[in-house]
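#lab-general

N.A. 3:47 PM
ok so I finally got the sequence cleaned up, no stray characters, all 505 residues accounted for. can someone with queue access submit it? mine expired

B.Y. 3:52 PM
send it over

N.A. 3:53 PM
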Amino acid sequence: MAQPQTEAAPPSPSLDKSGTRTDAAGPDRRWWILALVGLAQLMVTLDATIVNIALPSAQADLGFSDGDRTWIVTAYSLAFGSLLLLGGRIADLFGRKLAFLVGVGGFAVASALAGAASSFEMLVVGRALQGVFGALLAPAALSLLTTTFTDAKERAKAFGIFGAIAGSGAAVGLLLGGFLTEYMDWRWTLYVNLALAVVPLVGGWILLKRGTRDAGAKLDIPGTVLVTGGLFAVVFGFSRAESHGWDSPQSWGFLAAGTVLLAAFTWWQTKASHPLLPLRVLLDRTRGASFAVMLIVSAGMFGVFLFLTYYLQLTLGFSAVQTGLAFLPMVAALMVAATMATSILLPRIGPKIVVALGMALGAVGMAWLTGLGLDSSYAAHVLPPLLVLGVGIGLVMASGMSLATSGVAADDAGVASASVNTMQQVGGSIGTALLNTLAASAATSYLVGKNPADKLVQAQAHLESYSTAYWWSAGFFAAGAVLALLLYRNGVPETDSNAAPTVHM
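B.Y. 4:20 PM
back already:
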């Protein structure tokens, strides 16, 4: 019979093969591990946005075109998104300590390479390498938490903090990117990772225990090729849709190819003797719902970070630093909500209500933003919906991350964590491409029959595009609320008896 996830077995000293010390004798060690893992996760998540603000400066310095500019962002997301499942499985097979340290160190070196770029090509290579090592680091970091914190109360606090870091990373990236670009140089948006990597590297070397590799473990090569190719094609297809339109063969062709490859990967996982993604990880209803929730919330979040950034800078005249500061109240609300979600709400009322409420608040906040005008003020019109969005996203992100990796065996923790990150990456790619396309179409439609040279008309066209993106984002969140109500069970979740068991300390 399935046991509630809120129960924990008595501690027993052991050392798992992937290198995480699982004895309960030193609780302080676990919280230090959380600090290391959280800092490493912040390094990865803020890099999705920190470079965006620096792009105009980098473009002026290196002299690349507007068309090439998108590759600075795409190179990172393509490598990161397509290699995540492979990175997660490597962490499971060869040890999470090794994967974590190589991921952190490699990410720092790649950042230094990109920061020192003397050409467009060198910058793209550096960003792609950031994505490669990020795909190794991110699932190793999350799986370390999964195997380190299995006591219900401690796990709730740990995942609340981790979810807050993951959810606020994009906003922190905007703030830090603004400061570094405005007061130092665009290259420091990349060099900053050298400083951020020091503590996780040194601390991880000291605190994490190296495990022994399972001699019988094998990597699923056909599965790796299929899923890497499939994810690459999907992320690339959505990135092409943003710049070339949905009717371009580079868009729908890659999306179709990606769909076929991922379908073949799913079939192969039922046949492989050592599957890259054991389907038992997905069999649990709560975990499956959480993967879907993470996909949707990641797609909807981009409506806030992307288009509200445009609005604050182009319409209200905020500087890069002011724009980053404007998101801080949302980050604070997100952190408070994330901690409350896992430590107070989930253990008492379960994910059906918590996640659905978070999604509903996200929809309300997005719909509220559609009322922004040319004469709106930050305090009266931008701040209130931002706070609502922060609470909503915090409830969803922390709950989704915690439940998507709950009840997973230690041997599958890395690949389960990689699946969560994959949902975030693919969701973000879908959100960016789809919302950008819809926003551009709305602006074009608004300009029909009007004088495009008129500055007031241009400003109104921008507002129309932002409003369209907000409405669609609200739709994403609303769909997520319905999905949460349909898929999650009532009450505190239980792990299916045919799913991977929870490993207790």
